[in-house]
């Protein structure tokens, strides 16, 4: 994380296709000379959390990874700032708090031997594809920790994603600067007493699917799915560091802490 106040002279624009986001894009476009994303040194994203994730994934999939200042025109907007129109936007950018975010890199091998690699900002999830309970072996840094987890699946979450699916699966909320990952079972049947683990983010987590023909499992990195997987290996993608920009008193680290006190 950094409290530096960088100046952004060339701004790109990304927006959702909702009526609110389109209206805001037109409003801002009348006040600012936005440039193509490949020429920008920062991106303004208009929409909800989905728009923010789409914008970040577009950069992860290719091209330069730029700082992003999100303006909420969606529902929850956990990764976004409040939208106040064009007034004061340049000053807000100058005063914005920069938060560093590291995604996960998922390497998948399917039952037919195909290989896929995707990044996840929130979490990587393994999910059963049928009515049959999934059975998954879990290893950390090459050591088998659970020979067979039986349940709906399992997920590995970043601190950013710890308040999303991970929290819904009764996983822990992780402070943004904790340097930890949350390993959380999804509706576990066996072992009954295992409720997950908190791991250093230098850990390499591997999943191997048991009885894959009878109990097929899909792997999902945020919204990118690979079906009928055999093995999944996950580690932090330190070469893909991203920067999110926030108004100083509403930054992501404070939001994650505050989420622990929601009643």
From TrEMBL:
Record key words, sorted: ATP-binding, Cytoplasm, Kinase, NAD, NADP, Nucleotide-binding, Transferase
Subcellular location: Cytoplasm
Binding of NAD(+), residues: 49-50, 122-123, 152, 160, 163-168
One BP term from GO: NADP+ biosynthetic process
First-listed, main subcellular location of the protein, grouped into a coarse class: cytoplasm
GO cellular component terms given for this protein: cytoplasm
Enzyme Commission number(s) of this protein: 2.7.1.23
Reaction catalyzed: NAD(+) + ATP = ADP + NADP(+) + H(+)
A Pfam family recorded for this sequence: NAD_kinase_C
Active site as annotated: 49
GO MF, any single term: ATP binding
InterPro entries the UniProt entry points to: ATP-NAD_kinase_N (IPR017438), ATP-NAD_kinase_PpnK-typ_C (IPR017437), NAD/diacylglycerol_kinase_sf (IPR016064), NADK (IPR002504)
Residue ranges that the Swiss-Prot or TrEMBL entry lists as coiled coil: none
Cofactor field: a divalent metal cation
HAMAP family: NAD_kinase
Stated role: Involved in the regulation of the intracellular balance of NAD and NADP, and is a key enzyme in the biosynthesis of NADP. Catalyzes specifically the phosphorylation on 2'-hydroxyl of the adenosine moiety of NAD to yield NADP.
Record family assignment: Belongs to the NAD kinase family.
Name the UniProt record assigns to this protein: NAD kinase
Organism in which the protein naturally occurs: Aurantiacibacter rhizosphaerae
Source species taxonomy: Bacteria, Pseudomonadati, Pseudomonadota, Alphaproteobacteria, Sphingomonadales
